[in-house]
Specification:
By secondary structure, this protein is of the alpha+beta class. Helix content is about 40%, strand content about 20%. The strands form two sheets. It has a three-stranded antiparallel β-sheet with strand order 2-3-4, with helices on one face. It is globular and about 40 Å long.
């Protein structure tokens, strides 16, 4: 999977913004935290959900299952607005 090129990622003051272009299937702005920003950064290239979880584990400390749940939830949100090409 990879980020749909019709979406642009902005990082501002610790927040990450996902902004659609005029051709995107979504209108609005998605705002996220560091975890969402890291996921969006990884989605700039082709990557699997498992690879995202592995890389996040290397960057962040969290209890078992938390990272997996966050990744699953974030990817579901991104899919729902058409922000991921699979």
């Amino acid at each position: 999977m990879k980020l749909n090129p019709e979406f642009i990622v902005y990082n501002e003051d610790g927040d990450t913004l996902l902004v659609p272009t005029a051709k995107a299937p979504f209108s609005g702005v998605l705002r996220g935290n560091k975890t969402v920003g890291a996921i969006l950064e990884m989605l700039q290239e082709e990557i699997t959900q498992e690879e995202i979880v592995t890389r996040l584990r290397e960057r962040f400390e969290a209890e078992d299952g938390v990272i997996e749940k966050d990744v699953e939830s974030t990817l579901a949100d991104l899919r729902s607005i058409g922000a991921i090409d699979e």
